[in-house]
Amino acid sequence: MNFSVDERGYYGEYGGAYIPEILFNNIEELQKNYLNIMEDKCFQKEFESLLRHYVGRPTPLYLAKNLSSEFKTTIYLKREDLNHTGAHKINNAIGQILLAKQLGKKRIIAETGAGQHGVATATVCALMNLECIVYMGQADIERQAPNVARMKLLGAKVRPVNSGSKTLKDATNEAIRDWINNAGDTHYIIGSVVGPHPYPDMVARFQSVISKEMKDQLLNQTGSELPTHVIACVGGGSNAAGAFFHFSENKTVKLIGVEASGKGIDSGHTAATLVAGRPGVIHGSKTYLMQNEDGQITEPYSLSAGLDYPGIGPLHAYLFDKGRATYLHVTDAEALDAAFNLSRTEGIIPALESAHAVAALQKLKFEKSDVVVINLSGRGDKDLDTYINYLNEKADGKQD
Ligand SMILES: *Cc1c(COP(=O)(O)O)cnc(C)c1O
């Protein structure tokens, strides 16, 4: 099974480019050029050199011995948390800024939720000396103050968005509006495998370095390049797409995506799109999304800002329908417990998003001989307040 799009930008019935006519030239320019640019030798050389010397790749594949003995199997952590800026998002940001330069663009825009993609974009714009404008919901600006400060320090303009729920989906709408008004000289760096074709395929390819490295590292460390399980959290689905990509033809490898169910699937406060949603069109592509009976997008909820999105990349909609990947869901509380457990057992404080992937260990049965790889998408510094509040609440609970 191929994890790339067909010529029209579809994975089965999902994907495509549902865009206003005014963006047609921009999207067509990208569609026509992205593969040629990405396959160009000079481009690849520059991309690989920056990933190595600036981002710090390859990231380690770490055998988590304590976690392994707890779950009576072999568990590796792919340490995307050790990338420059603290998550996998920089892989894609580096790729897209190089592409924007090739296309002669002068101005970069981006949307951000937790601020991780905004920081990654502001970082590469500083590196390449390009103007950077980041759209961010006012609610997220208030929740994610350190990342707002980072973006400003890096020279980006952070534009607050006050429409809707003032979160990621509203910031995305605003970024699309900006692009419509500045179509000629602006490149829009989308932060996940979402949006109109070619973004889902382009972002998946930039992130596919994750599974490429996994294969080499597994071969080295276990004697086989194939694990039995690859587990990754899914917001839009870019770290999962990157972790799954090079295992597309290896049917023995179980691919497991983990969505955030927030306060629970039936609570009305959830972001588990594949369970709570159905097919429709969001932000330029056909995929699963959470919507009411009239097709209006419903507000997602997850304590983790990076997973708080009402859609999912069309690749995942396709893998879900075909059964090639399995999708689980994990609540806020389960993710918090997993973050706490990983910190104490391995000395690694994960991002709350990544903790959803770790929590999935509780929901799966393993053989002793299994080799499980968890893609640890990011580090937990940005979530310290959330973690401390949780520990304090737990301590208070015990005293009662
Ligand atoms: C943004 C983010 C995610 C969610 O995005 P995907 O596109 O689903 O990977 C997951 N983990 C971290 C650390 C993030 O910053």
Structure overview:
A 6-stranded mixed sheet has the order 3-4-14-9-10-13, with helices on both faces. A 4-stranded parallel sheet has the order 7-6-5-8, sandwiched between helices. A two-stranded antiparallel sheet has the order 1-2. It has 16 helices and 14 strands. The chain is an alpha/beta fold and 400 residues long. It has 2 domains: 156 residues, Rossmann fold; 217 residues, Rossmann fold, CATH 3.40.50.1100. Helices cover 44% and strands 18% of the residues. The model has no long low-confidence stretch (mean pLDDT 96). The protein is globular. Pyridoxal-5'-phosphate (PLP) binds next to α11 and α15.
- Biggest sheet, open or closed, and with what strands and sense? 6 strands, mixed
Strand runs, count? 14
User: Given the C-alpha coordinates, what overall shape results?
Assistant: globular
Level-2 CATH architecture of the largest domain: 3-Layer(aba) Sandwich
- The figure for the number of domains is 2
- Please, how many helices? 16
Layout of helices and strands:
Blueprint: E1 10-11, E2 14-15, H1 24-39, H2 41-55, E3 61-63, H3 65-71, E4 74-79, H4 89-102, E5 107-112, H5 116-128, E6 131-137, H6 138-143, H7 145-153, E7 157-161, H8 168-181, E8 186-188, H9 199-207, H10 209-222, E9 229-233, H11 238-244, E10 254-262, H12 273-276, E11 278-282, E12 285-289, H13 314-322, E13 325-331, H14 332-346, H15 352-359, E14 371-376, H16 384-399
Parallel strand pairs: 4-14, 5-6, 5-8, 6-7, 9-10, 9-14, 10-13
Antiparallel strand pairs: 1-2, 3-4, 11-12
Helix pairs in contact: 2-4, 4-5, 4-9, 5-7, 9-11, 10-11, 14-15
Bound molecules: pyridoxal-5'-phosphate (PLP).
